[in-house]
Prior knowledge:
The chain is mostly helical. It is 37% helix and 4% strand. The chain has helices spanning 34-37, 70-97, 112-118, 125-149, 189-192, 240-268, 274-298, 359-369, 378-393, and strands at 183-185, 214-217, 304-307, 314-317.
Amino acid sequence: MSNEAVRSTASATTQSSTPETTAAPGSSFNRRSFLKNTMVAGAAATMGAGILAKGIPAFASDSSGPAVTKGDIDILRFLAAAEILETDLWVQYTELGGVQDNEESGVNGGSPLYMSALQILDGDMPQYIHDNTDDEKSHFAFINAFLESVGGEPVDLSQFANLPSSKATGARDVGRLTNLMNLNVDTSFWTRYRSATHNPDLDPNFAFGQAEKIVNRTAIPRTDDDLNGPAHIAPFNIPDHLKAIAFTAGFHFCAIEQGGSSLYPSLAQRVTNVDVLRILLSIGPTETSHFQTWHDKAGNVLTVSDVDPMTGSKVTFRQLSTNQPESLQANLIMPEPSPFLSRKFPPCSIIRPTNTKGVAMGAVKGLTDDGLFIGQSPDFFNAFKALAEAADAAERGV
């Protein structure tokens, strides 16, 4: 999830309402979720479909506080959708660049040369990709199971999995939810986490610099043709074009996971039920763990330029480990203390941003700007935006 995906300044129209528990399981649903059985005509009208036993906490043994509210359900459904989309992109990375074992269904040998290109960043990249994929799968499966346990409607986006897959050897020829072949990667997280003077929560109009400029680039081989070409820098057995594809992926890994690092604590501030809060506070740190890992690996890019033969887009990666100002230094991956809540307080090392206003719609915007949804239908965008608007409208109860 990109920087823009969690910017608190995202324009979102939300409507506040008092948190409320929903009707008891077994009572008639007022409407069915469009994500389960229908297309999106009237999508916004379906967002209250989560049903919960009125006045009963999710787990009585652990929750002595308020019951799960409609707002809690809306937040969980948005997060389930986000995790499903994240899983979709990570599965594509795993098929071509991850460890090929029976823990991940559908892998078929991968793309060995693409794996080698990724390993320029770290020798363990295939294992990390595999494990990140497994984590995201567990997130959406758990959230959906929890939703069902409290009478809520689980999220299913499979009807929108119609985007084309890579045709490179190792990729499955199946419909996808996300597009990894025309990415605009927001790399401003790099300077934002190194800034000691600015925080997007306090400085929403400040423009953090991009570590690398990545526009309309593929992060996976589209066909086996992307495995060919000259190599002007070592390792010479890996074409420079493929190096650039792997480096694009490396920065995209960071951009996606740093967004999740902010999304969970931001939405946790709107949660009412203790168990739902526990879910968000438990999953969120794993996203930060992913981000920290990928942040470290992206710093190992080499200096290389490439012009994409299919799109004509140019990228020039610069080696960040040497002769760079502090804001670009590769080994400074710990969050620099920055202003937090108010400048009257001393700087603090924090996740940034965590302002909660409009965060879900900000995620929609950020992921869209990323290029992940190029080729998706208007129905998909209506569905995802409706989920986000409902999450942003949730309010924490007492």
